[in-house]
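Write out the 3D structure for:
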Amino acid sequence: MKAIELIQALSKKLETSSQAQLAGVLGVSVGTLINWKNRDEDLSPSQVASALAKSQSAAVKRAQFETIQPIVEFYRIDKCLTKREKSWQVLDGGEDAILYVQGLKAELDNSYGIYIFYDSRGHALYVGKAREQTIWKEMNLAFNRKRDIQTIALVHHPERNQEFKPGYEKLRQPKDTRLELFDLAYYFSAYHVDDGMVDDLEALMVRGFANDLLNVRMETFAHSRA
């Protein structure tokens, strides 16, 4: 097989659009790729095997270093109402926000992976995944979702304009109150995760902290779902 034929076949199969991109996937330098193309001779079995071995090594390296990439960690939630004021979102990344926040919102709205909500002490409350929709959309849906598990005893105090009466005059009993994540969450982290790893990473985190999180569903690993 001619080197040029192998390179063309690999480029088509791997859907690369440039020599640099193909060289990166194969784990060789652009110069090596050019030398192969300029050779008007057949590749030896050893050369083909070497190319495959380098390609495998490059794939393993990408899996190790690019599968999970942090977007932001322990970012302080600054909740605000949506434009229609029907729900809350974790921050306002609109035109009036500073560039840093606008950039963060844009990155979350273009990424898929895993997000985590924390309480004011930095303890994890909830782990969620974003595969079908972006992290921005999924995390804001979770931010507003009602869950019976988020119920704690609280005292309901008057919000209308009326005279205060101390507890020894009018005792107000604590009652079970269901809260949303927007009442509990104080920080969030978000990570871009390769599509093939999203489900398993979520399952690992939920199962690893099963007694600390508000997640109702106990996620399973890929081999268990098959």
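The chain has two domains: 3-66, 69-225.
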